[in-house]
Amino acid sequence: MSDIISVRRRRLILGLGAGAGTLLLGGCDSLSERPATQSVLGSAQWFTRAAQRAVVGRDTPAAEYTRADIAPVFRANGTLNPSNPKYQALAKDGFKDWRLRVDGLVANPQEFSLADLRAMTARTQITRHDCVEGWSCIGQWTGPTLRDVLARVVPKPQARYVMFFCADSIDDDMYYESIDMRTAAHPQTLLAHALNDEPLAIKYGAPLRLRLGRQLGYKMAKYVMHIQLVSSYRPFGDGSGGYWEDQGYQWYAGI
Amino acid sequence: MAQATGTLPSSDRTASGKVLIDRHSRAVRILHWVNFITLTIMLMSGLQIFNAHPALYWGKTSDFARPALSIGAMEDDKGHSWGVTTIGSHSFVTTGVLGWSKDSDGTYQVRAFPKWATLPGETWLAMGRAWHFFFAWIFVLNGALYVLLGILSGHLKRDLWPTRIDWKRLGHTFIEHARLRFPKGDEARRYNGIQKLAYLSVIFIVGPLIVLTGLTMSPTIDAGWPWLLAIFGGRQSARTIHFICAFALLAFFIVHIIMVILSGAWNNLRSMISGRYAIETAPSGAGTKHE
Q1: Fold of domain B18-54+124-280
Q2: Is the pLDDT of residue B247 over 60?
Q3: Among all residues of chain B, which has the CA nearest to that of A51?
Q4: Domains in chain A, ordered, with CATH?
Q5: Å between A217 CA and nearest CA of chain B
Q6: Interfacial A residues in 23-42 facing B (CB < 8 Å)
Q7: Which residues of B132-162 are buried (b: 16+ CB within 10 A; e: fewer)?
């Protein structure tokens, strides 16, 4: 009697084990396709953000390196030369006619020329760039802090996110990004116009790109044309806050 | 080999002179299987992430010309493709598995780790990251709970901390293990020195190391805890150590499975499911736990 129970139980357990194994290996792929799985797994980023906010101060800066640490060749990736004709025309003239529009939930919307931004007090920082793919590269970035630029347009209290609209597109979707006001106010958040003492080359995002000290590369929009302060990023693109976020990458790119 | 039978709680003693003891507590059994599923997902999604940039470096940044390890494909002058894995200055042909392997439709493609080893199977970095960073939380919480319960219940001290006798017998135990002679009777009631050291090094060295090197890859954590960069010698070194730890855990897992099978697959498996473990014992049966 007990022999039979034991054998049955053994078969059941081994069967369950084999079933679980198959489910795990074969099932995870179809699970990955499901919006519900993506939404549940993706929600972990908000725990991660809360945990990182709990242990890292609001303005705590990322490590800054020395000139000796600067990579001989800074790796460029993403779009290397936007095909957009309007951008090409601006580039031909050395971005003389380029204007950065800053508007949205601000008291004083403005347009900045490259000369205006270069005339502002600049911050120069040698920081590490971490790509979502896994590699790191160190470069020296120069430009006004976003905090200073926003101070000129005077954000309204309802403003919660800063949207960056760019000149490049991938598969016909315009590149865009968004950060929160907390990240926008960080002392290392720059609108960089120079890399390693040279005006930003086209492959690095000329004439202006965003630099963040504490997030991954895909947040740092290149070819920035328009900055808009908003209360929600939902109305833009597919609603996830950025080009790569719309492809399933985390909005919070702190890890 | 005769299997222990009497799994009914009324009788611990079996006709063949074996005794069933309660080996693993319910908490340990649950945490064990959660850990197994979590680590499987972490490893496979980790390999998916690695595939996005299949090279490892030492130091603060990536010296693209001199990776410590890289996995890729190359084409010879006859148009034939090879999977190539390079460690330092040594290259190995790894066609079919690393660098150049079959896609789901049977065609070969350039990818570091093959489809069957990654989660998801297809090249899909965003989803690999989603799995990895969700289950990272479960891995950490599950591990922390295990250590906490292990301390409170005395499990760690009683069952895993090596005794003076364990240290003394380490050489002997090693030889016995190598000969695949496993302890019987009262000796089988407890872990031997090698088992204790193996479990302790996974719990207190490799586990924490893989979490800390994972955190060192976070640019936000680096800002808050710059000492992590100092300890591991930079973000790219941390990434390399993270990878080594993952394979150390895989090696532990493989040895663990081999030992489970060689020392009685069914008995071991049952002890981690129902908690009951059969040991051959002297007729007196002294020390048996009765329910």
Answers
A1: Fumarate Reductase Cytochrome B subunit (1.20.950)
A2: yes
A3: B221
A4: 62-246 (3.90.420.10)
A5: 10
A6: 24-25, 28-29, 32, 38, 40-42
A7: bbbbbebbbebbeebeeebeeeebbeebbeb
